Amino acid sequence: MTRRRYRRAAVEDGLAKIDVDTTVLTPIDDPRLEAHLVERIWDGRILFDIARGRVERRTTGTDRTVVGFSGSQSSIHYRAKLDERLVGGKQPD
C-alpha cells in the first residue's frame, strides 16, 4: 500500500506551491513486487492558481534501483521526470 501526501509549501502571487511525495506504507520484502511499484512512487511539486482554480504546472520525478527482482544478479534502474505546463499560464521560472 502506498500513500501520496500533498503539502502546501508556500503561497506567492496567487500561486500555491504544493509538494507531493509518495511513501510505501506496507513493507516490501519481495524485489519482484518492488520492481512493479517503482513507476508509481514519485515526488514533485504542483503550482496551483488559486484565483482561476487550475493547475499551472506539475513537475514530478523518481530515481530508484531494485536489485534481485529476477534472481540475485538482476537489477533495474528506473529514472523518470515529467514537467507539465499550462500553455499561457503564469508560472514562475
Distance from N terminus to C terminus (CA atoms, Å) equals 35 Å
The total of helices stands at 1
Number of domains: 1
General shape: elongated
Helix content bin: under 10%
Q: Main attributes?
A:
single chain; 93 residues; mainly beta; 5-stranded antiparallel beta sheet; 57% strand
Structural summary, described in words:
- This protein is mainly beta and 93 residues long.
- It has one domain (2-85).
- Helices cover 8% and strands 57% of the residues.
- It has one helix at residues 31-37, and strands spanning 2-12, 15-24, 43-49, 54-67, 75-85.
Write a short abstract of this structure.
The chain is mainly beta.
Write the layout of secondary structure elements.
Layout: E1 2-12, E2 15-24, H1 31-37, E3 43-49, E4 54-67, E5 75-85
Antiparallel strand pairs: 1-2, 2-3, 3-4, 4-5
